[in-house]
Amino acid sequence: MANTSQPVRRTALLAGGLAVLGLLSACGSENGTSGTPPPSHSARASDAAPSAGTGTDPGTAAAVGTPSDTAGSASASARTDGRCHTSELRAAVGRLDPGAGQRNFPLVLTNTSERTCTVYGYPGAAFVDASGKQLGPDPERAPGSPETLTLTPGASAWAGLSFSSPEISGARTATPAALLVTPPDERASLKVEWTAGAVPVGGNASSVSVTALEAGSGP
Questions:
Q1: What predicted TM-score, i.e. pTM, was given to this entire model?
Q2: Given phi > 0 = left and psi -120 to 50 = alpha, else beta, which region is 35?
């Protein structure tokens, strides 16, 4: 009987031990997620915080998002910078002043606004046909010493537009429909009807030159 009861007790103890291990394993599965430990607090904070290389500083973002006074500043600058703007000027081509095989014309800019403004430097000029296509290259700037010119309402400044007479130079010519005149430091042009005939647009001695602005309406 003693030998029979000992194996039975061992079997019972072994079965009890396996049952206890099973309960402990079940408790561990309920507290975890697939055996993966939950992320630490520092890991979650790092995910939420922007990267130092790609993030945007909140103060900078606010500054970028805040509407600036750029438009207002530009408008104020147009009123106070003193420069004459295209919308405040009228352009005209004066009478021909021929000399030594040259054809010379004064390009006149007149202040039509109600304020005093200034011009400085060289005007832009371009001959165009009826469709608006430019004829020939841009005029070259003649050497000179530009000065700031103050134009009161109604006052004018002029620049000389010159080229060799095509009959003498033999340059290839075209007859423009208009001359576009751009005041210094401006982008918009003023269109003036051209009635002085053919102008050089190609070939030898075809260059057109323009001088710096001077006070007055011509030589």
A1: 0.62
A2: left
